[in-house]
Structure formats: structure tokens, C-alpha cells
Specification:
The protein contains nine helices and four strands, in the order βαβαααααααββα. It is an alpha+beta fold. It has a four-stranded mixed sheet, sandwiched between helices. 32% of the residues are buried.
């Protein structure tokens, strides 16, 4: 079973949704058969790498809300994160462009560490207050999960994986991704948003049952075939 997850490093619900999906996966009987891939999505591709704005100031500007309304909203998001074991510090989040972080995830994928890199970047942004746009900071973060710091520096100093990031985003638009997180299972079912874990589990079980039924049908169809040259 193939699960593709479109998400952004700077999306608080993407981290919450990741945790809820993981909780569902822990309860899923055939979890070892699930192949999870993270797809790039940028909420704001035009964002600068360095910004003097806090997250709250950015939301006030973009959403046209008062600072008090934004603070209440952020408090609610922080409580939702806490429910799945995440200790958000949104006031410490350093606003940045996430292109480099997404390129780093593609690099990590080639080294078999995509999930670890995604997890570490989300933790760095929402919990640790680290900068996930600067090359030096990203190289240090990557080194913590066992990637070669110098190789990461060289990659980020080039434009490698930019095409892959853009392809992910274009592909997302083509299949109807309008917000993140967005979960696609076997390119047949989709779950939008940080849904409760039981919703993810229900979809996983449904797809799993369909796959098993299809396998049975394939075996039945093969039953009437001559495949050994004896017919």
C-alpha cells in the first residue's frame, strides 16, 4: 500500500496530522506493508529566507485578524499539538522559505532517511525554534540524523532537487491538493487535514481489504489459465 503525504515544514497541522496518521499506523495490522512518501508543498513559495516578522505578526497581516484573535488561534493549535504529544513553541518559530528544507528531504530520501529528516525538520521548526531555511542550520540538523554535513552543505549550495520539489507541488495541484496535510492512498483515496487517527485507520483498513479482494480475484482468474504449456 502506497501512502503519499503532501505537507509543508511551516504547517502546524502537518506535524499534528503526521502524528495522528502514525497513531493509526500503529494500530494497523499490516503496517509493515505500507510505503509512506512525503511530497513537497510550500504554503508560501515567495516567503523570504530571513524575516523579521514573528509567526503571529505574519498571521495578523495575512488573515486580517487582530493580534488577540491570532493569539487565541495559536493557543488552540498548541493545545491540539499537545494532545498528540507535541510541545509547540510557536512564539519561537523563525519564519522562512521552506524550499531548502524540502530539497533536504529529497536528499535524505536518497539516503534512506526521508521520514527521519521530515520529523527532525518539523521538530526543529515548531518545538526547538531553529532556523530551517539557512544552509548552515539545515546542515547541522541533517547531521543529527546521520547525514554527512559537508555533502548537505554542497547540495544546498547548488540548486539540486529544486526540480523535484516543483514537480511534487505541480503533481499535487493536478490531483486536487488545495491545502495540507493531504494524504493520498494508492492514488485512489484521499484524506485532507489532520483528521482523527480513527479516520486514517478506517481508510487504511478499507484499502487493505480491497487489495486482498483483488488478490483473490487475480488468483481465481489464473485458475483457468494454461501457463505451463500443457494445454
Amino acid at each position: 500500500m502506497k501512502v503519499e503525504i503532501w505537507s509543508d515544514i511551516a504547517c502546524p497541522f502537518c506535524y499534528i496530522g503526521k502524528r495522528k496518521f502514525e497513531q493509526a499506523l500503529e494500530q494497523f495490522a499490516d503496517r509493515d506493508e505500507v510505503d509512506v512518501t512525503f511530497k513537497s508543498f510550500q504554503l508560501d513559495p515567495t516567503a523570504p529566507i530571513h524575516s523579521e516578522q514573528t509567526m503571529n505578526e505574519m498571521l495578523v497581516e495575512k488573515k486580517g485578524m487582530s493580534l488577540k484573535q491570532v493569539e487565541q488561534m495559536q493557543s488552540h493549535v498548541t493545545m491540539q499539538a499537545k494532545e498528540v504529544g507535541l510541545d509547540y513553541h510557536l512564539d519561537k518559530a523563525q519564519m522562512t522559505n521552506t524550499m531548502n528544507a524540502h530539497r533536504l528531504i529529497h536528499f535524505a530520501k536518497e539516503h534512506g532517511k526521508m521520514n527521519e529528516m521530515k520529523e527532525k525538520l518539523l521538530q526543529s521548526y515548531f518545538i526547538d525554534g531553529e532556523h530551517v531555511g539557512e544552509i548552515e542550520s539545515l546542515a547541522n540538523i541533517a547531521e543529527q540524523i546521520g547525514l554527512d554535513k559537508e555533502a548537505v552543505n554542497q547540495m544546498l549550495s547548488s540548486n539540486r532537487y529544486e526540480a523535484e520539489v516543483q514537480h511534487d507541488m505541480q503533481e499535487g495541484v493536478q490531483i486536487g491538493v488545495q491545502g495540507v496535510p493531504f494524504f493520498v492512498i494508492n492514488r485512489k483515496y484521499a484524506v485532507s487535514g489532520a483528521q482523527p487517527s480513527n479516520v486514517f485507520l478506517e481508510v487504511l483498513n478499507k484499502v487493505n481489504e480491497e487489495e486482498k479482494q483483488q488478490e483473490k480475484l487475480n488468483i481465481i482468474k489464473q485458475g483457468d489459465a494454461c501457463t505451463d504449456g500443457s494445454c
